[in-house]
Specification:
mainly alpha, 4 helices, 0% strand
Length: 113
Amino acid sequence: MKRSVLTRYRTMAYVTGVLLVLLTLGVIAKYLLHIDGAAGFTSVVGIAHGWLYVLYLVFAFDLGSKAKMPIGKLLWVLIAGTIPTAAFFVERKVSRELEPLITGDAAAQTAKV
């Protein structure tokens, strides 16, 4: 597996995770604290998170299919973008598990040359 596949997934996991945390804070500010301007903030961040979550799904599915993840694990990776802060923990775990596959592949490539 190429490093770029993991890098794309990691980038989108961080972006999706940050936007989801911001969206959660915006919803709290809007509905619980009744802060002026929170409605506009929540709307903008919600739309951004929605569109970028779709991109996250594409990259996560690509990663899962190339890493041959079991379906249960792949579903957890896909759903992680909808639970505040889960994307950070799942990304870290997935990266640690897949890093040896990438470095092993690079070592095999250099051995062939």
